[in-house]
Amino acid sequence: MTDGPGGPRQGTNGEGAARGATVEDVVLSANTAFYNAFEAGDLDLMAAVWLPEPDPVCIHPGNAAIYGYAEMMRAWAMIFANTPYIQFFLTDVQVRVDEDVAYVTCTENVLSSGEGAPEEGFAGGKALATNVFRRTSSGWRLWIHHASPVLSSGGRQEEAP
Amino acid sequence: MTDGPGGPRQGTNGEGAARGATVEDVVLSANTAFYNAFEAGDLDLMAAVWLPEPDPVCIHPGNAAIYGYAEMMRAWAMIFANTPYIQFFLTDVQVRVDEDVAYVTCTENVLSSGEGAPEEGFAGGKALATNVFRRTSSGWRLWIHHASPVLSSGGRQEEAP
Predict the structure, then answer these.
(1) 3-state secondary structure of B133
(2) Distances (CA, A) of B150 to A11, A59, A73, B101
């Protein structure tokens, strides 16, 4: 993942933060680990990112929610199989921690090939993501990922209200 | 709010659940209280729904995130002023509780007048919502609301990936 200005520090599993790191830094490292696993298309890395239970939930832009660890990992395998290349550049990163739960919100600026991209080309897109993490004895684990479409024009989408 | 088949029980503030109610029932009552406050356009009810701190976050479909209790309440005042009528019919309601944190996901089937609706008429819309609650000494409070557009066709939206 490429960090934007003021973006989160690099980290591999949310537990490797430097000595003296704040809890927010550690949560941001867990957030980075999620996007690194996505970019790498690595199921083992992705499996380590998530809280196994109670049922995690994952919502990709414009798609229905996927509930439960096993179901979600099957979905990640499908996504990885259909995504030869993907890169995330995160902006507008915000983190808040409340004891053993934390959220990170960010704009995902995405460059990808595969489904939806021109043949042998790349497609760009934007999504707004909310990622909720739980603190466990083995580090912060992702429990909720909700990403939703952002209009490239930056304008308001039709909505209710 | 009109509950769909198998939808949550009615409740006013997330603390009025019947004796013998499960923790899931109580969380669903808090979720109902949020939509009741939205429908009523009542700032006092809405103020009581949310966790004041650390900064709650609220994302309306296709819009940027709003952080912090005071900022969010200003936004609700604007929304209520521009929404003469709104009704929610929730479907696909799922709830999971992990100690002092819980999420509810649901499809918001919305009927509204005001901005975006035909003059003196109504507009319908759908959104997919993730609502995250925290357990406090005075009941479950909403900390995160992320609602995103759903295509009326039920198909996939363009996304990356």
Answers:
(1) strand
(2) 34, 12, 23, 26
The per-residue pLDDT for range A58-91, each reduced to its tens digit, is: 999 989 999 999 999 999 999 999 999 999 999 9
| Complex ipTM value | 0.84
User: HSE (CB half, 13 Å, CA atoms) of A11?
Assistant: 25
- Within 10 A of B154 (CB to CB), how many other CB atoms are there? 8
Specify the residue for token string 């993501």: A129
- Chain A CB contacts of B109 under 8 Å are none
Convert the pLDDT of each residue in A8-47 to its tens digit.
444 444 454 467 899 999 999 999 999 999 999 999 999 9
How close is the nearest chain B Cα to the Cα of A12, in Å?
Answer: 22
- Which pairs with CB-CB distance under 8 Å and at least 24 residues apart come from B65-70? B65/A92, B65/A94, B65/A105, B65/A128, B65/A130, B67/A94
What are the tokens at A55? 């049922």
Distance from the Cα of B49 to chain A's closest Cα (Å) equals 17
| Cβ-based contacts of A130 with chain B (< 8 Å) | 57, 59, 65, 130, 144, 146
Question: Phi then psi for B23, rounded to 5 degrees?
Answer: -65, -30
Nearest residue, CB atoms, B159 vs list A101, A105, A125: A125
- pTM, two decimal places: 0.84
CA-only gyration radius of chain B, Å: 15
Beta bridge mates, B110: B88, B125
